[in-house]
Amino acid sequence: MISYAECSARERLGLLLDAGSFHEWLPPSERVTSPHLAQLGVPCAFDDGVAVGRAMLDGCSVFVAAQEGAFMGGGVGEVHGAKLVGLLQRALRDRPAAVLLLAESGGVRLHEANAGLIAVSEVMRALLDVRAAGIPVIVLIGGANGCFGGMGIVARCADHIVMSDVGRLAMSGPEVIEASHGVDEFDSRDRALVWRTTGGKHRWLIGDCDALVEDDVAAFRAAAVTALNESKPLTLAALEQEHLLLTDRLHALPSTDTTGTTDSDEATLLWTALGIPDAQQVPELSVDAVRALRTV
Amino acid sequence: MSDVPAGLETLDFSFSGGRPAGAFAPVLVGVVGSGNLEVMLEPDAGNGCAVRVETSARGFGPIWQAVMNDFHARHPLAGVRVSINDMGATPAVVSLRLDQAVAEIAGGRP
Lengths: 296, 110
Fold this sequence. Notes:
The complex is a heterodimer of chains A (296) and B (110).
Chain A: H1 9-16, E1 23-25, E2 50-57, E3 60-67, H2 78-94, E4 98-103, H3 113-132, E5 137-141, H4 149-157, E6 160-164, H5 174-181, H6 191-198, H7 200-205, E7 211-213, H8 217-227, H9 236-252, H10 256-259, H11 266-273, H12 287-291
Parallel strand pairs in A: 3-4, 4-5, 5-6, 6-7
Antiparallel strand pairs in A: 1-2, 2-3
Helix pairs in contact in A: 2-3, 3-4
Chain B: E1 9-15, E2 19-20, E3 27-30, E4 37-43, E5 49-55, H1 61-74, E6 77-78, E7 80-86, H2 91-105
Parallel strand pairs in B: 2-6, 5-7
Antiparallel strand pairs in B: 1-5, 3-4, 4-7
């Protein structure tokens, strides 16, 4: 068992795909780097924090991108985003069996401001184009930096999300919520709270991810192979169904004013409302046990 | 305030008298994270070993020179271009990454 969370982006590519099959586009030796960071006194990375290319997965031709969380938290800068967009647009032309996105990102790289924001929006558009063409986009989330901000939205635009219990997925990250709404609203230092509200178990139980796996590269590979044939139609009906599910979920959550409990947080209340027995025990349970609990 | 200005510092070193590394695919090791660095080795024309360092920690030129001198003593390479992006790695970490990169050329896994 090799921890997915502890691997670098390139180690993940080496271990997850068929051995030796990864062919990189715009490799580090091309030096396609950020035009912005040097002005701020920040060193660039030769790959701008993302490796993109084609590979084989269980004998199927796939396109793949892997974000490096250790470089600027996996932040999407102008070049980083353009590499993702280029990969997705090339998929429209070459039609691989799937596009894999090994996501690990805090979202937009704020150093690059509007260029990063525009890059993320272009990634979303390109991803939806790929889905509309019937090519599944599979997102794997298990890095220590999680998948937040614009990349959290990108992930939820995809066909299929695989998460480990240490993986995290959300829009605003814990520090962002605390900074904007105060520590009473969300204590970003409360790690248990952070995982109860953004972690893989939570996302699995409420239906925001499609597979929950152990923090193991082989488990991620197996889940990605399974997802190869699980393209979801991108239709108005599917979107309306999704909105219905979100509305139901919102209404399922009892108002915290009426419960009168202080030691029970909203994540636990939601799990209970969804019919999960002994919801308080969920954080202590094994991945296998939590996988069996899903009701949605 | 420090006298050292903010911003990146670029350092160049070159060595001669090594043995030719021959042809190899470029290798990249490490990540540009806090206290870490990335090292890329590429084949280069000529008989030298050219090193370029971009670092966010300014004012450590003499230490880089010493670390690179030691590296060249351990691995006297010729026909190699060494490119480094550094975010404040310590000399020990730099030396380990350089050795890891050389091992990768030889086909070894880290």
